[in-house]
Structure formats: C-alpha cells, structure tokens
Amino acid sequence: MSSSASDGNFTADVLAIAAHRDDVEQTCGGTLLRMAARGLRTAILDLTRGEAGSRGTAEDRAREADAAGQILGAGWRQALDMPDGGIENTYANRLKIVRVLRHLRPRVVILPYWEARHPDHAIVAPLGYEACFLSGLAKIETDAPPHRPFKIVYASLYADVRPSFVVDITPFIEQRHSALMAYRSQYANQAAGSAIFVAEEEIRERTFAEARHYGLLGGVTYGEPFVQKEVGLVDDLTMLPVQSL
Ligand SMILES: [Zn+2]
C-alpha cells in the first residue's frame, strides 16, 4: 500500500471516501476486505487528518491509518487536508476530490450516508457526490483526464435507515476489528479521555452487534448496510438472494 499522492499508476475498482481516519474501518471495512478477496483493487480517501481528536496526534493517526489500510487490503490510502470538524462542501474541496478521482478512476465510490450525528459525516455525502459529477466534466481541467464513477453507494451504518442491501462480511469480521484496533491512540484502553471513550471490549461488542443486526437482515451472520439511490434491476427472479419466508 502507498499513501503517497504521486504514485500516479494505481487505479482502483472501489474507492471509499470518508471524513475521518477510522471511519471506513467502522462503516465499510468488511466490504473492502470482501472486494479485495474477490481480486478487486480498493482505495481509501480520508478527507481530514484527525487533528481535532481528543486522543493522539495527526502523526499517530497517519501511522495507524496506514496500518489499518494494510489490514483492510487497500492498495492505496491518502488523507486530504480538510479541517477536522469543519468539512465544507465548497468548490475548492470538490476539486481536491476530483483530482483523486481522476487518478484512481474508480468504478464504484462508497460515501457516508447523508444524515448523521456528526456534521462531517453528513456533508461528505453531497460533497463526494458533486465531486463525482464534476470529475466527469471535460471543461474542468486538472492534470488528468475526466472520469465519472459508474456507481455511488452510501454506507449507512451511522444512520437509522433501512438499507437497500447488505454485504456479507462474515468471513472478515475479525480482520475488520483488527483494522479498527490498529488505531491504538483512539481505542486501546488508557486513562486519557476514559470518561468519554468506551472500553476496547465494549467497542468489540457494539460493532459485532451492529454487524450481526445487519447480517440478519441479509440472512447471513455479519453484514454491513448500504443505501443506493437508484432502483435495482433484476434479470432472473429465481436468482434473487435473501429468503422471504
Ligand atoms: Zn468520523
């Protein structure tokens, strides 16, 4: 994996864009692992560097994000420099994402769902969507040719919304947990901030319970939820997954 911006040769099948380092580990890390296991090339773009966190420094988080990205099998991971806690949907920010999209040329982009408790999470949905649109416009010139992703899906774990589909992450749940725990400065049991941070054991129980809930909706053990805006298209009714009764 490389976190360098200059290695222009890597292209991705699936790109996950998130506000903060450690977001994708929680919302779609199992899905990235599953895609990598299928032989697809995956990439992660974090929009901030985590300088506003109560624990650890941005440098700690850079190291941890690199380790977590390797555990998730991502071929590329980079962080932009948007302010942690103050991401805005501006033209300048859209352009920063356009430059990444045109280099990585993903077919699928994963964004966070557009309603969330944390304003950074919510704003990345329209910001990322508009960047994907602009990226396809030839009149917007950057150092790489235009590229419009084919598909956008929204990781809806943080939102109280019924997903359009779930991805079976059962074989990857332990590995996803290891990726989250790579953020030692955030999640390892420690005194600093222990009044507002939950214990490591509790994080495991919560994240596994959420994955179990969404897994049940898809008829599997552990799952991750997604929303798509488009209507699904079916070829063969006898091949539809998920049993009705
Ligand atoms: Zn976050």
How do the helices and strands line up, and which of them pair or pack?
Elements: E1 14-18, H1 23-27, H2 29-37, E2 42-48, H3 58-71, E3 76-82, H4 91-104, E4 108-112, H5 119-135, E5 151-155, E6 165-168, H6 173-181, H7 184-187, H8 200-217, E7 223-227
Parallel strand pairs: 1-2, 1-4, 2-3, 4-5
Antiparallel strand pairs: 5-7, 6-7
Helix pairs in contact: 3-6, 4-5
The protein binds zinc ion.
The site of zinc ion (ZN) has 5 residues, from loops.
Model description:
There is one protein chain. The protein is built from eight helices and seven strands; from the N terminus they run βααβαβαβαββαααβ. It is of the alpha/beta class and 245 residues long. A seven-stranded mixed sheet has the order 3-2-1-4-5-7-6, sandwiched between helices. The radius of gyration is 18 Å and the shape is globular. 41% of the residues are buried. Residues 2-6 have low confidence and may be disordered. Bound molecules: zinc ion. Residues 19-20, 23, 118, 121 line the site of zinc ion.
| Proportion of helical residues | 25-40%
How large a portion of the residues is in β-strands, by DSSP E? 15-25%
Overall, the morphology is globular
- Enumerate how many helices there are, as a single number: 8
Cα radius of gyration in angstroms: 18 Å
* Main beta sheet strand tally, sense and closure: 7 strands, mixed
> How do the SSEs run, as a string of H and E?
EHHEHEHEHEEHHHE
The unreliable regions are 2-6
Report the strand count: 7
The average pLDDT value, as a whole number, equals 93
Report how far apart the termini are.
44 Å
The helix/strand class is alpha/beta
Strand order of the largest sheet: 3-2-1-4-5-7-6
List all distinct small molecules, including ions and cofactors, that are bound in this structure. zinc ion
